[in-house]
Design brief:
Number of domains: 2
Shape: elongated
Strand order of the largest sheet: 4-5-8-6-7
CATH topology of the largest domain: Uridine Diphospho-n-acetylenolpyruvylglucosamine Reductase, domain 3
Distance between the termini: 75 Å
Strand content: 15-25%
CATH architecture of the largest domain: 2-Layer Sandwich
Bound molecules: flavin-adenine dinucleotide
Number of helices: 12
Structural class: alpha+beta
Number of strands: 12
Radius of gyration: 20 Å
């Protein structure tokens, strides 16, 4: 039997899209394709055999604002949000501004960044901190899921087969303090860690505190957030140090040096996709003990704790 050739579908509506997906269940949605071809150095690209290009779905390009929410279609490019000004929450705006260069941000989409299957990319952190929700669509209906549930585990996000991310809904709350920090792992070809730390105050009292890291997976310790909520600013040094200790305990619990092969495979970029430097020669010990035990996760607990320490002490007297 003749081998099936590569094929690309260009649906202009959801019915057409899900019909194609139904006929070819292994089809992969393509947005800006920067993630699909990431880490490929050969001239001939290795692409999925069947692709559903989302380019012609106007529905996915909309940006709307209501009194309470900013709603962003999955095909909205990162650069489009850069030009929107103050309606984009500061935590998201800062995150986008630090993703690669303007050329990439002109092509890459919100949906592609959020759905990237091999690790959590940068936008997951502000989405979780801001309590965003995602609209997911299948042939027979729509469901909403919180950004934190969507990105909970390492490996692929919580999206079903033949399910599409269509819309992102971000509550437009007023945050008094938004900190963005990025740990750039220079040798790791874009496997960065992003920290988002946002705070709401009422009469100098911390009314809401959220601290989220996105890396191979998401790190968020709600216990330490609750510990700070209700405290007066400036924080006492003792409270600031106790907050750091909460995080130390949390990180010790999620740090699992002994992982099964399945865990590692789920958390890592596929080896054939990784650049050579990742496949060989990156010693774990030269970067400290990696979180989750993967050789790609070159940041350490200590780097994260230092970042937390620096930022929480800024709020202390
Ligand atoms: C040189 C370089 C540097 C980079 N630096 C950074 C960085 O600093 N920070 C960072 O966060 N990222 C970085 N990236 C990654 C980049 O942000 C992602 O590749 C990009 O956001 C993916 O968006 P896309 O539209 O190109 O998605 P695609 O490549 O089209 O898709 C990515 C994945 O998501 C799936 N997908 C896409 N849209 C949907 C949808 N609507 N519903 C369901 N599944 C969908 C696709 O099937 C695919 O699996 C970098 C990439 C490159 C090439």
């Amino acid at each position: 039997m003749a081998e099936r050739r590569n094929q690309v579908f260009y649906p202009s509506g959801f019915t057409e899209l899900f019909n194609a997906w139904n006929r070819f269940p292994d089809s992969v949605p393509a947005a800006g394709t920067t993630g699909l071809i990431r880490f490929q150095a050969d001239q001939l690209l290795d692409l999925p055999r069947s692709i559903i290009c989302l380019d012609h779905l106007d529905e996915l390009r909309k940006i709307t604002r209501t009194e309470r929410y900013l709603e962003i279609g999955a095909m909205v490019r990162l650069s489009e949000l850069e030009g929107l000004g103050k309606i984009v929450p500061e935590a998201l705006e800062k995150t986008i501004a630090h993703i690669a260069g303007p050329q990439l941000r002109n092509i890459a989409t919100m949906g592609g960044n959020i759905c990237y299957p091999h690790r959590r990319l940068d936008i997951s952190a502000p989405m979780i901190a801001l309590d965003a929700h995602y609209e997911l669509r299948k042939a027979r209906g729509v469901r909403w899921v919180s950004a934190s549930r969507f990105a909970l585990n390492p490996g692929p996000p919580a999206i079903d087969k033949q399910e599409l991310l269509t819309r992102i809904r971000i509550p437009l709350d007023q945050w008094d303090y938004s900190v963005f920090r990025k740990i750039e792992n220079s040798g790791a070809y874009g496997n960065n860690t992003v920290m988002i730390f946002i705070i709401k105050t009422q009469k100098n009292v911390l009314a809401d505190v959220r601290l989220v890291f996105s890396a191979a997976s998401i790190l968020r310790d709600r216990n330490s957030e609750s510990f700070l909520t209700g405290k007066r600013l400036p924080l006492s040094r003792r409270d600031a140090l106790e907050f750091i200790e909460h995080w130390r305990t949390f990180l010790a619990a999620v740090h699992k040096p002994e992982h099964s092969a399945a865990d590692r495979a789920a958390a890592e970029v596929p080896q054939h996709d990784a650049p050579e430097t990742l496949q060989h020669g990156m010693s774990e010990t030269s970067f400290g003990t990696p979180l989750y035990g993967t050789s790609q996760e070159l940041f350490t607990r200590d780097k994260i704790l230092n970042l937390i320490k620096k930022n929480i002490l800024l709020l202390a007297d």
